[in-house]
Amino acid sequence: VEFTKVAADPSIVNLGQGLPDISPPSYVKEELAKVAAVDRLNQYTRGFGHPSLVKALSQVYEKVCGRKIDPLTDILVTVGAYGSLFSTIQALIEEGDEVIIIEPFYDCYEPMVKMAGAKPVFIPLRCKNDGNSASSADWVLDPAELANKFNSKTKAIILNTPHNPIGKVFTLEELQVIADLCIKHDTLCISDEVYEWLVYKGNKHIKIATLPGMWERTVTIGSAGKTYSVTGWKLGWSIGPEYLIKHLQVVHQNTLYTCPTPLQEALAQAFWMDYKRMDDPDCYFYSLSRELESKRDRMAQLLKEAGLKPVIPDGGYFMIVDVSTLNVDLSDVDEKQPYDYKFVKWMIASKKLSAIPLSAFCGLETKKQFEKYIRFCFIK
Amino acid sequence: THFLSHSLQAKMSRPVQARRLEGIDKNIWVEFVKLAATYSKVNLGQGFPDFPPPDFLTEALTRALGGGNHMLHQYTRAFGHPPLVKVLAQFFEKLLGRDLDPMTNVMVTVGAYQALFCCFQALVDEGDEVIIIEPFFDCYEPMVKMAGGTPVFVPLRPNPPKDGKLMSSADWQLDPAELASKFSERTKAIVLNSPNNPLGKVFSHGELGLIAELCVKHDVLCISDEVYEWLVYDGKQHTRIASLPGMWDRTVIIGSAGKTFSATGWKVGWAVGPDRLLQHLRTVHQNSVYHCATIAQEAVAQGFQRELMLYGKPESYFVQLPKELQQKRDWLVQSLDGVGMKPIIPEGTYFLVADISPFKSDVPDVPNSDEPYDSRFAKWMVKNKGLAAIPLSAFYSEAHKNNYTNFIRFCFAKEEATLKAASDILQKWKQEKNSS
Hints:
Chain A: This is Kynurenine--oxoglutarate transaminase 3. The structure holds two protein chains of two kinds. Chain A is an alpha/beta fold.
């Protein structure tokens, strides 16, 4: 909220907030235009998700996961993935619980966990090469450190892959370490996979829910906004076993009850179109990531030319950049703020370019570790 | 390792759901919507119009889509799309007679439902009591409970007219002494719904004055659900409690584009109130949904801009819709009265409640049944007569569900053809009873 205001100035190039300024695919916009003309689609639909949408989602994800997914009991449609995170946390987390959050983290995880009365327990991704990072793959969890964070109070771990802000795509081995701990400690996994289709060459997005023993303890979250470049549609979904999803449905029926009908119908139609071509490279799920890969590479090139050190992401549409190489002296500015906050404000004012400071994505104790990085969005 | 192979398909072995879900998992709509979808030929149950939204609204959506501004498909301002909060502020300035800041006195939500949720989460804590007037829109109770609060119920009591005429929703009233007795030092808020769903009652200036006095005396907040604010009949006035002395600063007013513009599926609502209260709603909002859909907000903003220009004029939708609905109300009242069901004539909303006593013989009483009679009756009616309606007990707390056994709620925001079909079902049913 803080940084959106600053960058609302149209003379500033906004690479901060994660929203595309590219157009959604034309067939997506067309479907919504078609739907607008159908009378009954302007009234309430099924609370837990518009029937044609949950059907389409179940088909797409059955193909991806290789298991049967019941559209009525295993899926909940929510107001954005944000709404799914909220419903999941409100449904399954409470006072006395601990929730493990991997740093840096999408900033809403911490306040949502706190609002549910639980305690966030942080564990940082650490750079393998002693601070010299060229790729998001350099950032890893220390398995022993991770294991130490689990105890009898641990109710859940929040996983975000592909990861915002670093762009890390967790490997099978990394997911297995997390899965083993979840099973050992009887813990839930809340898997935020909104960038699931945005993985670049040489990388594969793996769903932790497909690992042995994990389907029954994982809620997987997805996003229409990120899948179809329509963040303003605010539609997301939670997928998981009925005995977990039913509690999310209870939260949903007591918070907003239904999501907008026309948008769900249009989204369902778009999903059907892409479901039919899931074996075709032209499917938007794959063509978007190809488009973004070249934007990623272009942005990395521009940053290097400016003397900055980008960390090339394996997935997602964000890139973190080490700005310490520029050695901008900001010691005379307000000392209490982390370096990256001060840098971004300086960059907005003097270079008319905005980004997000990485310490916005960290718990209090880790801010120092990440304060030489800022995050750029390249879905532009 | 050994233990892994044991638990490979195991669910979580400890209790998985949070305790805040206790007692709020049942929802009447899930069941009744399914029944209507399966059995109903004529659906007068769930509250939504079966006629389309006005052309100017759907045209606004089409224009927005065709306009080439693809940024309308991306996030807008979290607390409300600027054109929408701006026009809402302008509108409510007019209605309330005070200056409003669109940025701090207005917040857009995913339907009025989410505005209610933000109110309870923001303003109600464990140990707080919240007064709810029965019968009530059913979500108030679970929302209060989910926030850790304690609902305290006070009933509207029917005072039937002595001359045997049909009751009006105005005949259902609060007992002032009874109301006053519900206020305690733990009372944090009272929920007011006027015009009232399900009865259709439009609280009078005097009745609101009573509630306002008690709020001021006990320093209590007022959550004022006014989604049916434009649906008021017989020349009655909808009075906004926030305009009464001492009330602006302690009231959150909730409204709905779904009800205002007959587009319930768009899920655009709002909260209007003082910054000192809305700031807390904003906190809940930014930690729960954060943004609402942009394009729906853009179209609703244009709808309001049109209404602002036409305010008070005959072409205004806010003048035409209640006129149309009043006719439908009268039509349904006649149909029901004609077969011996006794409707309570609503002063507002698009609902009416009717006493179905003459038809009770079709659904024998089951002593010691867990389910309230009217609920069994409504289920039997949709399955056997294809007519969907909602039992009044749905709008009462658990303890009071059997207070009234004979009332069913009908929605009359329906095309003429639908209301005629309903009338045909009722006529046929009455004939069957007469001949049996």
